[in-house]
Write a structure and sequence with these properties.
Blueprint lengths: L3 E5 L5 H9 L5 H20 L4 E6 L2 E10 L13 E8 L10 H16 L3 E5 L9 H7 L3 E2 L5 E5 L22 E5 L6 H15 L5 E5 L4 H5 L6 E3 L2 E2 L7 H12 L4
Parallel strand pairs: 4-5, 8-9
Antiparallel strand pairs: 1-2, 2-3, 3-4, 5-7, 6-7, 8-10, 10-11
Helix pairs in contact: 1-2, 2-5
């Protein structure tokens, strides 16, 4: 008998879904991101159906997988209409690891992809620093790195999809300001964007910093080649948690700072 069970996300399970990742985090910025995430899940339930599965052990939510058709996300629509995209699989509780929860979540999504007629599953392989890195997990499960960014591919039939790398480019009017893009699909995205905004403002106090929800304004995002952060029309590639390198790139992009 299995010690855990899987359930599709539903309106009554929204709190369980966000709990797996948030685990009681309650900063105002994070809570705003949680509300965005819940609204997004409800929208996706109406438009497509369940976009997450939750693992329960002893009645508690202990793992989750978030997935949806790649064509529905401005950041992944380049993968095409025949790809099911996995944003993340997460089982952060040490006492519930090595139980096969991650494998079961992934196999359930793959099974759904087959039933719905998708030709491939593409997963975002990033490392949270906790237990097994996602790239290694996906490789063990038969996925292959696409050679582009962190896309891992499991081809179900036909030719594998060809992910397109980001190609950031400025638009007229981007000079002299910063743009930070975020989305509602992750409850940490807005919190991260707001922290990036504060960091840029700390070194460029006269720079306007604009936060853009790219799910609501895909044209702003796609027309610039899918960047995360741009300053003075220049892409910032360093992550904000690498504070020193991030600030160096921001100042370089701004022409030496202010």
């Amino acid at each position: 008998m299995s010690v855990f069970r899987l359930e599709d996300v539903s309106p009554s399970r929204l709190d369980d879904l966000v709990w797996v990742c948030s685990r009681g985090r309650s900063t105002p910025s994070h809570l705003r991101g949680v509300e965005l995430k819940k609204a997004w899940v409800l929208e996706m339930l109406d438009r497509w159906g369940p976009v997450a599965k939750i693992a329960y052990a002893r009645g508690q939510p202990v793992g989750q997988v978030l997935y949806y058709p790649a064509s529905m996300d401005p950041d992944t629509r380049h993968l095409g209409h025949t790809v099911l995209y996995i944003r993340c699989i997460y089982c952060p509780f040490p006492e519930h690891q090595r139980m096969g929860i991650g494998r079961a979540l992934l196999e359930a999504v793959i099974g759904e992809a087959v039933e719905r007629g998708f030709k491939a599953v593409v997963a975002s392989g990033f490392n949270t620093g906790e237990y097994l890195p996602l790239p290694e997990f996906y490789r063990r499960m038969g996925f292959k790195h696409s050679g582009v960014e962190n896309y891992y591919v499991l081809t179900l039939r036909g030719e594998p999809p060809r992910p397109q790398p980001r190609a950031p480019r400025p638009l007229p009017g981007d000079e002299g300001r910063a743009l930070v893009f975020y989305s509602p699909k992750c409850q940490f995205s807005l919190e991260f964007a707001e922290s990036v905004k504060r960091l840029i403002e700390s070194v460029l106090p006269s720079y306007p910093v604009v936060l853009i929800n790219y799910w609501e304004e895909p044209g702003e995002f796609l027309s610039r080649g899918r960047p995360a952060v741009m300053v003075n029309g220049v892409e910032i590639r360093a992550w904000a948690w690498d504070r020193e390198q991030f600030i160096k790139e921001v100042l370089r992009a701004a022409g030496g700072g202010q």
